[in-house]
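Hi again,

Forgot to attach this to my earlier email, sorry! This is the prediction with S-adenosyl-L-homocysteine bound. I've pasted everything inline since the attachment limit keeps bouncing my files.
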Amino acid sequence: MTKEAKPDIKSLQLGDLEKVARDLGEPSYRARQIADWLYQKRVQSFDEMTDLPRQFRARLTELVDFSKSDLVRVLGSRDTTRKFLFRLSDESLIETVLIPASPALYGSRSDRRTICLSTQVGCAYGCKFCASGLEGFSRNLSPNEIVDQVIATEQESGEKIDNIVCMGMGEPLANLDNVLRALRIINAPWGLGIGARHITISTSGLAPQIRQLAGEKLQIRLAVSLHGATDDVRNQIMPINRRYNLETLLAACDYYARHKKQRLTFEYILIANVNDSSDQARRLGRIARRLDAKVNLIPYNTVHGLPWSRPTTEQQEQFLSILRASGVAATLRREKGHDIDAACGQLRLQTKRQLQNTGP
Ligand code: SAH
Ligand code: SF4
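Structure tokens for the complex follow:
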């Protein structure tokens, strides 16, 4: 371990912690003591780990970072969707959304509290409808910055989180290594202990990484943001489709589903006059049946400065009924967070603009 590449304590797996202990001449059971302080007792410094020898704590402080995220703003209240805006050690802003128990969200039972995690600062994929893509990409989040969103949100809300979705800012499969490191900590019995089946990654369609993820042991769920049932429609709103077209994407999805013996979920935002026609509904039905996938319809959340809007309720219901008539398991999410700008990236964008307007 060199001084230049200082790791953060909450990015390390149990095996890494054991190595750190051994390298510093301590028995490897120190690793479990550290994990217990981090993920059960939730301390914020090495100094608070009082059953570790003082000398060992001093060496840890020298060699390993212990960063934390600062809460900048909270929007929403108990019983509704709440958004947390965090400032990272380099001043970057990221947001995390806490969604109260709601029926049938990503296959979970209705008593689950879901957290929506960001995986990058900004996003490079530039989907036309998305606030996160508007200002481009800044950087990947490190594993500890992803893990900390869960810890800090539990601390701020006083609630125990038991369902995780990587659907906040960023494209998780473009930061796959760090995301997997974080999810292993979130999943591990020595970490946060959240079951892999209660962890979902959402992707806009990075076909090669979907295949890579299929080779991972972790039994996490995959949701694919389809938002269009033809190349024509996807090309209009998702630049990624020009790199991996629908057939390439669906082949990767099929590979994943077979390999993992898992049912995928397709997410489909309904945007008025863009992807909400009966023809798209029928085609989406055929795709979902072919892959035996579920479909989550999400009415579009308006983003300030973008021209898109959601279809009428009748139009949404009609789209849903066409899907159901074709034998697909489909749900229509009646957005809980619409009133607090719940779609990904929006709180950050709004706060950044306010800071720019009021700044020096
Ligand atoms: N980059 C990944 C995960 C983050 S986005 C992905 O695209 O899947 C998570 C989900 O929020 C995606 O399905 C995305 O399309 C959707 N989303 C983005 N902007 C939205 C908006 N304004 N209203 C509703 N859903 C939105
Ligand atoms: Fe990025 Fe997902 Fe937003 Fe597309 S929808 S710009 S991939 S965060």
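Residues 336-341 have pLDDT under 50 and may be disordered. Residues 143-157 form the longest helix (15 residues).

That should be everything now.

G.
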